[in-house]
Amino acid sequence: MIRNDIEITPELIAEHGLKPDEYQRILDLIGREPTLTELGIFSAMWNEHCSYKSSKKWLRTLPTTGERVICGPGENAGVVDIGDGQAVIFKMESHNHPSYIEPHQGAATGVGGILRDVFTMGARPVAALNALRFGEPDHPRTRHVVSGVVAGIGGYGNSFGVPTVGGEVNFDPSYNGNCLVNAFAAGLADTDKIFYSEAKGVGLPIVYLGSKTGRDGIHGATMASAEFDQDTEEKRPTVQIGDPFSEKLLLEACLELMASGAVIAIQDMGAAGLTCSAVEMGAKGNLGVELNLDAVPCREEGMTAYEMMLSESQERMLMVLDPAMEEQAKAIFRKWDLDFAIVGTTTDDLRFRVRQHGDVMADLPIKELGDEAPEYDRPWEATPKPAALDPSSLPAPNDIGKALEKMIGLPDMCSRRWVWEQYDHLIQGNTSVGPGGDAAVIRVDGTEKKGLAFTVDVTPRYCAADPFEGGKQAVAECWRNLSAVGAEPLAVTDNLNFGNPEKPDIMGQFVGCIQGIGEACRALDFPVVSGNVSLYNETNGQGILPTPAIGAVGLLPDVTARATIAFKAGNDAVIVLGDTKGHLGQSIYHRDLADGRGDASAPPPVDLTLERRHGDFVREEIRARRVTAVHDVSDGGLLVALAEMAMAGNMGAEITAKTDLALHAWAFGEDQGRYVVTVPDGEADALLARAEKAGIPAARIGTTGTHELTLNGGTPISVAGLKAIHEGWLPTYMAAAPEL
After folding, report:
1. How far apart are CA 621 and CA 696, in angstroms?
2. pLDDT, tens digit, 9 for 90 and up, residues 408-452
3. Where are the alpha helices (DSSP H) in 466-503?
4. Fewer CB within 10 Å, N side or C side of the chain?
5. CA 202 to CA 194: how far, in whole Å?
């Protein structure tokens, strides 16, 4: 007998984020009115965050296979072969809405969730990164959100013991009411010891592992699938509370349990908690699942079936266990002082049954919970293609040195040292290149020289102006970042952050970015192996800039043959690879120095053939140890890239711009596919000859030395002065942050 003592009203249906036609779909599917618990289960499984109902159609168009891909999208994380019987397992995921409501816990549990996605598959986490977007600095809430988010990320990652090795931070008014916190994690596993979530075998025990279930996080996934409004603060109870020390215990216990051979299938309890983990495990294995909630460890009295099924309490796992090893498995978890409880069994009837106190609280068809979720082909309008900006239409600065100083002190361009100094990026002892460069590099533990490189990137203003080119550029930028340290780009994960998909113009942004990402990934053999979609990032109808963040992983056969951005020695030749055409449309110069914010001009185009050719060439030069420094050219253009190299090396350079372009277009244009490299003076001609042979434009533009940067013999710019400006803005701004 199914217990149903709550009336299901239209108001209750709406509170669960279900449209009337979706509720009718439920009635047609089960042939009766659902119980409150069943309504909650459908709400959890059919919301945007879990079902991808607005994005599935387009996600299927992305390339997801490749020579090294072991497991693509559909599991907890993507798996890529890195040789020698090893695999890197990685994913990026959002925790946007919770982080705006409760910045510290929202960001902390975002880190905890992505780490579980990785170690659920049998990998030990070895690196974390993040991509953060905040509102304009003058907004009254921005300091509070920045302070809480950074403290939450650092507090969780540092306590857990994973190095946070890189990331990005941007400020823009579109994020005033909806910050973005995208967390990336990567782990290492043996290719023959990877664990999946597909349940196998009938009558096998389903085991609950980890921390106890509480009332925190109820409706978290549903809240993450809705716009914010004036009642945002009332959603604070839907933010989970994290405990990194419990997560560390859970990691060690799970890896020990996996090594014992007791695990048949395992799934972490993330969005939608017990509901989503149990349904996904059963449905993937074409099995039913029966749960007994009386056996679930709870930390609060009198929890209802509804609350237990929708709780998103952290640090929990669900596992299908080999029954012959029950006692051994239980002993492992007792040793680590974690809960271990048999809470259900697999069945052969394809039903999802939930019992509590002898009553059946839910009895639903398990496959249809996922497979029959609504899938929408949302109407969309392509973003009109903007015209290219004539560089001559933008005024030249009176003093190009002063323009550079202003640019590198902007909120979007200043040093992020204040952020990453709060993260432990050296723990585990394998970090070779930490934050502040093009990509982070770690040595693969257990090997002498093999390394992995990581980066995250996207330029939202490009995506807003031209979603297709912006999507291409995000992938190409990650390709360049990895190539610039000498890594072979392997694969990407994406975190697609957009506004309300029910608006055709917003859906058009999503479609355009996906098409651009897909084209770039195919052209660069850079498959998408995992990812996340975060929609409804709007507050009171105001959407964020389209922000399809890309995370990427690369492989270095020898971490000692790597490049960094810092000038290394005096009298090195400074060479730019790639064409400089002075593209100022959507540039930082255009937006911030020429008051062009919001102007409808085209971003710089991306030529994927050239990106591949240039990246391959740079990688070969690095691995042959022929270059002393490498930096890709991106935000701010060529002069900013040179200034960053100078500041990193505490060394200046004399630069000569031999160009027919206006000097500010040459200096600040954001043409794509370019790198700045340095070589010993006597080896410059040989590099230029190799570049010419490879069909790559290359020009010597200067020589390193002294402690000043000069351009065309003009007024010298002190590198120390640049560094003071670059390093100063963020700590000065945050000095007024409130105590949390």
Report:
1. 13
2. 999 999 999 999 999 999 999 999 999 999 999 999 998 989 999
3. 467-483
4. N
5. 22
95 counts as catalytic = yes
219 is catalytic: no
**Which domains are present in the chain?**
198-216+244-357 (3.90.650.10), 563-705 (3.90.650.10)
Handedness of CA 459, 464, 470, 474 (dihedral sign): positive
The pTM of this model reads 0.94
Name the 3-class secondary structure at 311.
coil
Annotated active-site residue in 16, 95, 97, 219? 95
Tokens representing residue 275 in the block: 């509901």
Rg (alpha carbons) of the chain, rounded to whole number: 26
Active-site residue identified among 16, 49, 583, 664: 49
Q: Measuring CA to CA, how many Å separate 151 from each of 97, 157, 416?
A: 17, 10, 14
> What are the tens digits of pLDDT across the range 113-147?
999 999 999 999 999 999 999 999 999 999 999 99
Q: Any idea what the Cα angle at residue 538 is, between residues 547 and 417, rounded to 5°?
A: 50
Place of tokens 């005033």: 176
Report d(CA 58, CA 517) in Å as an integer: 11
> Distances from the Cα of 49 to the Cαs of 226, 372, 481, 582, in angstroms?
9, 16, 30, 41
Nearest to 135 by CA among 412, 550, 505: 412
Lookup: tokens for 216: 């925190």
Q: What is the DSSP string of 521-582?
A: HHHTT--EEEEEEE---EETTEEPPPEEEEEEEEEES-TTS---SS--STTEEEEEES----
Helix, strand, or coil (residue 89): strand
Q: Which two tokens stand for residue 452?
A: 């992995």
Cα–Cα distance, 670 to 131 (Å, whole number): 21
Q: Please report, as a single letter, which amino acid is at residue 267.
A: Q
Cβ-in-10-Å burial (0-12, 13-18, 19+) of 365 comes to middle
